[in-house]
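thread from #wetlab-drylab

HS: before we spend reagent money on co-crystallization trials with 6-O-phosphono-alpha-D-glucopyranose, can we at least see a predicted complex? here's what I'd submit
DV: go for it
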Amino acid sequence: MCGIVAYLGNQVAQPILIEGLKRLEYRGYDSAGVGLLKNGKLLLSRSVGRISALESMLADHDGETLGIGHTRWATHGGPSEKNAHPHVDFSGKIAVVHNGIIENYATLKKWLISEGCDFKSETDTEVVSNLIGYFYKNVDGSGGKRPSDGQNKFEWAVQRALNEIHGTYGLAIICTDFDNMMIGAKKGSPLILGVGENEYILASDASAIVKHTKQAIYLADNEMVIITSDGFRTKTIDNVVVSKDVKEIEFSLEAIELGGFEHFMLKEIFEQPQCLTTCLGGRLDIKNNRVVLGGIAAQLRELSRTRRVILTACGTAWHACLVGEFLIEQLARIPAETEYASEFRYRNPIIEDGTVVIAVSQSGETADTLAAVEQAKERGATVLGIVNAVGSTIARQTDSGVYLHVGPEIGVASTKAFTAQVAVLAMIAIELGRRRNLSHDETAGYIRELASIPEKIKTVLEQSDHIREIAKANIDRNNWLFLGRGFNYPVALEGALKLKEISYIHAEGLPAAEMKHGPIALITNGMPAVFIATKCSQYHKIIGNIEEVRARGGKTIVVGTEGDENIRNYADYLITVPDVADVLQPMVTVLPLQLLAYHAAVLRGHDVDKPRNLAKSVTVE
Ligand code: G6P
């Protein structure tokens, strides 16, 4: 949801900014821009479309070693050159790139216009540049407030403006009077400062930094950083000095490269055996028949006695939560429910004494999930996080949590994060079950089976070409159904979401038995219906549902269990998965659906990693 990158150092800034923006492009890609500063002169380039479009219009700049860049996902004002960042204030001195939303921009804009400031765009961001510009110009007459002794005027104007702003921001700001200074500030949107040797890179996430340095500081909300070639200082936006530890960025450059795959999504689908191995690694204690989750060890006792668990997330992570709900109820016999974070935060939720809330997020930055975490904390719940991005806001805001450890996920459509989220939820459910009601043998069985999954899913990946053929045979169909029961019902929802988001084919996911209450009316000759009909407790029931679709001319694409000959009679197309216990099946059955969506999108000629209108990290409401 918009990516920002800024550079100050001894190298030429422009190629570094462009490279950083390409790394951040998954956050937004409808327009982009860079601003370079040298000798008091600001050079601005902005363009609609991808970073490559911006790159092709750039002149060579070899002198500037300070600059800011932005890749946009439009919120206020459509994608256009004038709405692309950087935004420059009325005086032409202050340039800003911004990720987030300024909620009171309309009021501020009206006031700034009444004070004679010009606006050129429809964005909320331009209020930031103009407000900073306003205070910078009126430093001596701004409501009796003045810079403290010796305080730099630019720095002061930024603080003064940020104190008037409501909303969220990750900001990088430069001023034409300061050739050797950039300022970053954060509230609600991520911002990291990479600290290299004689160079600094400010960025929305570490992927734009790791090529240059692995040393970084993570800014907290309401903090700002003032960077010059002599070093950096951190303080709050209220001018209180804060000291920050420099931390090591945990992932490598290889993790964010394609590594021979055509798309990140395909790479990430194929990484799943390795990712699950890492995610489960050291956590399944087979010898002592228990699960070890260091991050929530202190909370497990409370969790095992809790009266109610609420799981909350958005998108794919919400589907993982639904699997988690079923797992916690089935294995630990604790009442659990799944809430969309965007609904939870606004519906005055009941949090009784002893309610535990689990927030699940790949990025750890999703605005709605973060707000749900804050809401739950305010109401006294213990809040745990299941997060992939180390050091992200949700990871820091929750009381404790479990990291996925699957490395950066770049493809906008989430794949490896989903299977790892389910794996973590399965580990939590098994451990709670062990403490509550599972027998020794039942616990041992689940732990052993979970440990075997990374190896088992390789057979699904081997069917990628076969799945491509299935996608090809149905590629002209514009409406699909995805149906599953029990633990595979959330997988059906996830399969439909994957197809929709990257291939733009309309798809609906349903619990299979619900079909007869309405959606069955949609079935016409040749309509693809994807059934997850593995050997499970509801096997015979779902075969009944397959019959209902076949009787109406639908084409059945069936995910069945290896060795199940009977299922062939019901499948126009069959994909097989290894046999695993019902409760652990989602980690296996989702893979064919990820591949189906991937191949359908490629066959339709879409940009798989950057689907239209979507962004990876949704840091706005
Ligand atoms: C966006 C992404 C989805 C993701 C959802 C939640 O919509 O496109 O792939 O599932 O956000 O993201 P999170 O980072 O919180 O898991």
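DV: Residues 416-436 form the longest helix (21 residues).
HS: ok that's useful, forwarding to the group
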